Amino acid sequence: MQALESETTEALVAEIHALKQERGAAILAHNYQRPEIQDLADVVADSLQMARRATVLDAPVLVICGVHFMAESAAIANPDKQVLIPDLDAGCSLAATIQAKDVRAWRATHPGGVVVAYVNTAAQVKAESDYCCTSGNAVSVIRALPPGVPVLFLPDFFLGSYLKRVTGREMDIWMGECHVHAGMTHETLEERRNQYPDAEFLVHPECGCVTSAMYYAEAEGDVAAGRMQIVSTEQMMRRARSSRKRRFIVATETGVLHRLRRENPDKEFVAAAESAECRYMKLITLKKLRDSLLYLQHEVTVPPPIASRARRAIDRMLAIG
Ligand code: SF4
Predict the structure, then answer these.
(1) Alpha helix (H) ranges present in 78-144?
(2) pTM of structure
């Protein structure tokens, strides 16, 4: 199939469907993807669910419409499948703040220490870590650590500070943050609270972009007072359906609003910060997805020794819940 000279959205979508069939491929899109990518994906989910769902899909080719560490996680979980990402530049500013050598340097000065890595990390960093965690299970992972040993939490400063406060566990926290944080300040959240006093606040901490919102909400007592729900994507979708509220302030990357609005046309969803947009996620376009399927590019692989060590950290996390 040849690339078209001038391409309409309809033509690209038709071509993607045909190529997907031809390749036996499945498309997995992160919740932060552009609406048109979400609309033609087989799976729309958070990073952990993307990796999990990929293992049960009967498809030899997986196209990951997300950022690079997500494609690595899919490759680790699916060693027999070909994993593609439509744009190799789709990285993550949070994951990029730490390298494997930084973890080794911390270990050298903290013998017997334990390293907990948030999912937003490269496979090389996960391989150097003892436990992996998501925002959803980070509290359980920290509480399950052996007492009295030094702990390094990486790479998200806001999530680490939140965990320290909630669990009372002393730990070193890597000073990494996601660029999307810039739009999710204490002032922005306060402004939205005043602007929409009748609205329910939904915070979706899947990614580093909203861990600052978790941090501020906990400090303000919003969580304890029940004014703010900290929820996973699926919980957010359920909550939006079942809540009697008609209006919601959604603290997350703006891509999640697409599904909320599509599934709840009679309710209003307002972004906590319109500027909370991940430019790396938005690098994936229909044209790049088409090219990925057409040329089977760009393949993401993780060397087996790194994959097996990274998998150990992920499995320990899953054992905790
Ligand atoms: S929103 Fe931030 S943490 Fe999430 S993928 Fe983008 S850069 Fe990384």
Answers:
(1) 100-109, 123-127, 138-143
(2) 0.88
